TrEMBL record:
Its cofactor is Zn(2+). One of its GO terms (biological process) is proteolysis. PROSITE patterns: PEPTIDASE_M14. Belongs to the peptidase M14 family. GO terms for molecular function: hydrolase activity, acting on ester bonds; metallocarboxypeptidase activity; zinc ion binding. The keyword Zinc applies. This is Zinc carboxypeptidase. It comes from the Bacteria. The keyword Protease applies.
Amino acid sequence: MMSSTYPIGTANTPWGEVEKAAWLKQQQIQRSYQSDVLSQLNALQQDFDVEQYGRLDHRELVGADYPLFAVKSRCWDPAKPSVLVTGGVHGYETSGVHGALAFLRQQALSYSQHFNLLVLPCVSPWGYETINRWNPKAVDPNRSFTKQNLTIPSPAPESAQAMQYVQSVTANWLAHIDLHETTDSDNSEFRPAKAARDGTVNTNWNIPDGFYLVGDTKQPAPAFQQAIIEAVAKVTHIAEPDEQGCLIGEPLVQSGVILYDTKGAGLCAGMTDAAFVTTTEVYPDSPRSTPENCVLAQQAAICGALDYLLNQR
């Protein structure tokens, strides 16, 4: 169904700097990156290397800057297969951040015997603090993982710094699991805001009730995706397709799985050339879910992916 007019901007006219500034002025800090994320990293240093890979200088826009951290397997061995896990690319998608941290606390050490693990738990900390999809410049980091060069950099520093760091790591990338959520606020706020920003007309989609995955159209890896779905189904429900056989407007290709062109769309899951890539999507607004259950689903997805890869060796 069509959304109501967004309160910022003029219909059918893309935002300029005035509208973006008006949008930014409405954003409020609602939680703490320091307390919720950074405070957990010290304890991980006993078993992992914790590396600062960048810093987001948002002082001119919001009066703050944000250090960016990665957690890396100790004794990194380039001969071993490497797996990348990312969370908080959309900062408002809470269980992606806390699922990555919970995996690091509870399961990562045992898997690091078999894989090099690199985890970026919160790619977009300002988005985490303001419960926002975009960065302060009204740019979506998860459409900004584009190949950089000297003339066309990524439009989002969150994406650019994550890419630069991952590319600097000597690794044989086997898999990438990117942790996300689909929330009711996608229809109530973020899709209408995007249409207003871009000067287009918004048509909302049905929010899937349950967990699903977004694979890559160019390397769909159906057995890999199925293994993750089966692992997650033990802790939460899997989304059913709508009347058109779709999830978020995309056709279902197998139980709980749709496909995107990850590189073409500038998605985080497309930033490496790994053979096995997936984007998780949990639904925290479901009456059948809790925040704890959503975190468990993210952990189950990571473990299901790694167990599948171990069984293929």
